[in-house]
Amino acid sequence: MEKNWYVVHTYSGYENRVKQNLEKRVETMGMTDKIFRVIVPEREETELKDGKKKTYMRKVFPGYVLVELIMTDDSWYVVRNTPGVTGFIGSSGGGAKPTPLLPEEVEHLLNQMGMNEQNVEIDLSIDEAVEILEGPFAHFQGRIVTLDAENNTLTVSVDMFGRETNMELDFSQVRKI
Fold first, then answer.
1. 162 pLDDT more than 80
2. Has residue 15 got a pLDDT over 50?
3. Of 6, 33, 62, 176, whose CB is crowded by the most CB atoms within 10 A?
4. Is 58 exposed, middle or buried (0-12, 13-18, 19+ CB in 10 A)?
5. Which pTM does this prediction carry?
C-alpha cells in the first residue's frame, strides 16, 4: 500500500489542536509506520497597520488539516476518532474510505506553503564545475563549495570582477559542466 495525502475536516479554529492531538495519538498508538505527516495549510502574510509591518500566519483552508498516511482500517480509525475531527473530505459516509488528493494538488499546496517536497536526484560533488541555470546569475559558471543533500541546496563560488562570490542555490538551479 502506498501513502497518500487526505483532507480532514475539523472544527473551525481547532486546526492546530487537532494537529497536536493527532500527532500524540500516532505516537501513543504506535501508528508511526502508517501515519506520517500532519499539516495545517498556512502561508505567511504581512500587514501594514499604524505604519508598522506585522507578519502573521494565515490559514489557507480554515477548518481543514492535511494528513499523509497509508489508508488502512486502523489509520482511518485513529484519524477519524481524534478529538476535533469531524471527518474525511471525499468520503461518501457510512464508513467508506475517502479519496486521496491528487499528487499535483499536494505539490501545489506544499509549494504555496514553502514546503516543496521535491527531492532532486543529482550526482554532484564538492569542487565540481557547474553552470547556474536561472536567476540573476544565469549562465555564470562556478565551483561547488558545499553540498546540503537534506535541504537540496549547494553553495557555488562564482568569479565576479576578479572576486570570488559565494551563493546558495537549489540543486535544480545548476547543471554539471
1. yes
2. yes
3. 6
4. exposed
5. 0.62
Superfamily of domain 4-112: NusG, N-terminal domain (3.30.70.940)
CA distance linking residue 93 with residue 155, whole number of Å: 51
Residue 162 zone, left/alpha/beta (φ > 0; ψ -120 to 50; rest): left
Distance between CA atoms of 24 and 64, rounded to whole angstroms? 18
Q: Which CATH class is domain 129-176?
A: mainly beta
Cell of 59: 490559514
3-state DSSP assignment of residue 10: strand
Contact (Cβ atoms closer than 8 angstroms) between residue 19 and residue 67: no
